[in-house]
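Researcher: Structure for this, please.
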Amino acid sequence: MRHQKKSLKKLGRTKSHREALVSNLAVSLILNEYMVTTVTKAKVSKSFVDKVISAGMRKRGDSTKRMMQLLKNKLAVQKIKDILLKRFAGRSGGYTTIVKLGRRKGDGAEMAKLILIGSEAVRRPKKKSSKSKKKEADQKQTKEPDKKNILDRVKGIGGKFTDRSKKGSDTRIAKGADRTSPEIMGKSRSGI
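Model: Predicted structure, token format:
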């Protein structure tokens, strides 16, 4: 009987494939401090990462060995020991958070961002006041883009377009558009 046994989401995979997937997601989260994945994978990874970090918090000699068994990545274990354990010294759990992002364009799967607490990915830039937003909107509307500056930004078009537009034949913009491809390549048709 399975009384009071917590069920793990199977994620449509075999046991070995699921363990490898969750371990790789955890390593990605630990090294990058955030990751974007589906909501279901994020929930499974969240509990796994919390367990790994809690295993590292224990003051036993085998904590490093246990983290290596779970993660199978030396860099991730080293980062937990050097950086994350110091950051989470006062916490007893809840090292990650899930932020829902909406649905993925291709298949409509719900996406989420899994973030380690206290990382740079959590900190959001300050919101601009409504006055500064209005000023920016007014400046964008009043300022018309200068045609020459825009074309100069595009490599190789700027001068050619403005010269041709003065002559009146602006149908060919690109450099060498009035020549055939063998002439551009420096070869004659017979030499190809």
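Researcher: Any notable elements?
Model: Confidence is low (pLDDT under 50) at residues 169-173. Residues 48 and 166 are 67 Å apart (CA to CA).
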